Amino acid sequence: MFKKLLKMDKKFLIVLALLIGVFLSFSTVKTMAYLDSPGFCQNCHTMKSVYSSFVDSTHSDLQCNDCHLPHKSEIGKLFFKGRAGMTHIYFNTLGTDDIPDVIQATDRTKDIMNDNCISCHKSTLSNVSHDAKDMCISCHKTVPHGKGFKDDHYNKPPKSGELLENKGGF
């Protein structure tokens, strides 16, 4: 097969390679954008009430990952996203008994969210005193999800395999 490729017109091969590259780049960008979207994130059972409160908030024009992923480097963002994604896949597909009843942000995630709040709201921080607490979410926990977004369904443990049953939301 490789010999057949070498016998083909080089201009044709270059154009074909460029078209394949454009297609792969476009599809990768579209896939990553979808994986960042609130529509994708709300597919997990605990995220339904989080999503519905989010779409009614002042932050509804943002993507979930604008707040929940680090932005200091693209590699760090992708690594964090991949690690979190693999954890979610593990919990939702492998029948583990280790699925947490309620999802709680880790200290690392809280630090990331805090950094992102500060990054977007620098002007507010310079105009208003914010020295009362260590973290933005200490006082602004209901932003952007509103009060009471943790409904009865939120606090129920997920069923193992639920993501597969919903086909990942597709």
UniProtKB/TrEMBL annotation:
<feature type="region of interest" description="Disordered">
    <location>
        <begin position="150"/>
        <end position="170"/>
    </location>
</feature>
<comment type="similarity">
    <text>Belongs to the NapC/NirT/NrfH family.</text>
</comment>
<dbReference type="GO" id="GO:0009061">
    <property type="term" value="P:anaerobic respiration"/>
</dbReference>
<keyword id="KW-1133">Transmembrane helix</keyword>
<dbReference type="GO" id="GO:0005886">
    <property type="term" value="C:plasma membrane"/>
</dbReference>
<keyword id="KW-0813">Transport</keyword>
<dbReference type="Pfam" id="PF03264">
    <property type="entry name" value="Cytochrom_NNT"/>
</dbReference>
<keyword id="KW-0349">Heme</keyword>
<keyword id="KW-0408">Iron</keyword>
<keyword id="KW-1003">Cell membrane</keyword>
<keyword id="KW-0560">Oxidoreductase</keyword>
<keyword id="KW-0479">Metal-binding</keyword>
<keyword id="KW-0249">Electron transport</keyword>
<dbReference type="InterPro" id="IPR005126">
    <property type="entry name" value="NapC/NirT_cyt_c_N"/>
</dbReference>
<dbReference type="GO" id="GO:0046872">
    <property type="term" value="F:metal ion binding"/>
</dbReference>
<protein>
    <submittedName>
        <fullName>Cytochrome c nitrite reductase small subunit</fullName>
        <ecNumber>1.7.2.2</ecNumber>
    </submittedName>
</protein>
<keyword id="KW-0472">Membrane</keyword>
<dbReference type="InterPro" id="IPR036280">
    <property type="entry name" value="Multihaem_cyt_sf"/>
</dbReference>
<dbReference type="InterPro" id="IPR038266">
    <property type="entry name" value="NapC/NirT_cytc_sf"/>
</dbReference>
<keyword id="KW-0812">Transmembrane</keyword>
<dbReference type="InterPro" id="IPR051174">
    <property type="entry name" value="Cytochrome_c-type_ET"/>
</dbReference>
<feature type="domain" description="NapC/NirT cytochrome c N-terminal">
    <location>
        <begin position="9"/>
        <end position="145"/>
    </location>
</feature>
<dbReference type="GO" id="GO:0009055">
    <property type="term" value="F:electron transfer activity"/>
</dbReference>
<dbReference type="GO" id="GO:0042279">
    <property type="term" value="F:nitrite reductase (cytochrome, ammonia-forming) activity"/>
</dbReference>
